[in-house]
Amino acid sequence: MRYAFAFALLLAAGTALAGDTIRFSKGVVSVGDATGAVIQRAGQPNRIVQLENGFGAAAGERWEYYVDGKTVILTIRGGKVVSIEEVR
User: Fold this and answer.
1) Cα 66 vs. chain centroid, distance in angstroms?
2) Which CATH number fits domain 17-87: 3.60.10, 3.40.50, 3.30.1450, 3.40.91?
3) Residue 7: band (very low, low, confident or very high) from pLDDT cuts 50, 70, 90
4) In degrees rounded to 5, what are phi and psi of residue 11?
5) Average pLDDT rounded to a whole number, residues 10-21
C-alpha cells in the first residue's frame, strides 16, 4: 500500500519535466548553449528573473518562455544554459 501511495505521488508531481534540450520554432536549445544562441533560436524571453544566492549576490538568471500552453524555464549562469525545465 505504501508503494502505491508513493507511486501516485510521483505521477501527480509529474507536471514539471527537466531535460537537456528543448525545441523552439527556430531551433533546439541545449544545456551548455550560450545566451546569444538561445536568443537566436528562442527569441527574447517573456520574463527574466534575477537569481540570488543566500547572501543576496547575483547567482544567475531564470529565463521564462510561454510556449503552447506551457512555461519553459532556462536557468542561465555564466552566460550559458545550465538547466531546462518545462512546466505544464
Assistant:
1) 11
2) 3.30.1450
3) very low
4) -65, -40
5) 64
